[in-house]
Amino acid sequence: MTAVAGDLDAVGRVANRIRDNIEAVIEGKTDVVRTAITVLLAQGHLLIEDVPGVGKTMLSKALARSVDATVRRIQFTPDLLPSDVTGVSVFNQETREFEFRPGGVFANIVVGDEINRASPKTQSALLECMEEQQVTVDNTTYPLHTPFMVVATQNPIEMEGTYALPEAQRDRFMARVSMGYPVPAAEIAMLVAHAGAAPLDDLEPVTDTGEIAKLIAAVNTVHTADAVLRHAVAITTATRSTPELTLGASPRATLHLVRAAKASAALSGRGYVIPDDLTAMAGPVLAHRLMPSVEAAMTGRTVEAILAEIVAAVPVPGP
Predict the structure, then answer these.
(1) Whether 170 contacts 150, CB under 8 Å
(2) Does residue 91 sit within a domain?
């Protein structure tokens, strides 16, 4: 079944409402906001990485507040325990039985602030949640809410008091975005709008989980031709064979790339994916999963530059 015009109109209409809502508090970051909405509609998780003070937490909270859904925030600190994230069984003296008390992941949108300040053990508590949308505690499995999205922020790992995310953890994030510093005009607008009040206080939801679920279903019906699927596989396969990378993209990365491309196509009003959708999403979806070789790192080659060359070198399928 392919996407119909009415479904695509709904995707664009609701996405525009969410975008306008977020941009009311995030100035001059249209591409970053679009990527965040794309990940939401593709049923993925988003990693926001940059230096402190550029609006990472503001973006994650604005996205969460734009949807009328259950939202939980987890402040990741060095002393945070895995049970604080997933939940814990507590013995009830009155009933003489153990009761499960849910942790911070039991919500539609989970905002994980500074995720790389927690220990690797605590970070790993999110692995099952993000991939299988469930939590297992004391041999009992508890399903998480639907839809479910983790929006995590992190500082560059070179900064003091941070732990690098394990490869398995990074691979579960569909996309990574960097906020970057705002242009002077956007920074001035931010000073005028935010200097005297908390900008998130006036932010109201513009959609709900029921509508988001319908949009996700519409995105799933976007057509992906066999040639486009082969193009996606060719891109990720090329990352595994280049000597400049010691770790290429996983099969999960290929799946995430196609899902993100379908959401991007729907946001553009198309019921089918074109190679340009894959090219546009390759950087956010693949770059954070790749590791440069020692030789590439010593010569100053960045993963983003290597990936851009790989994507450009893969032949684009014809009509």
Answers:
(1) no
(2) no
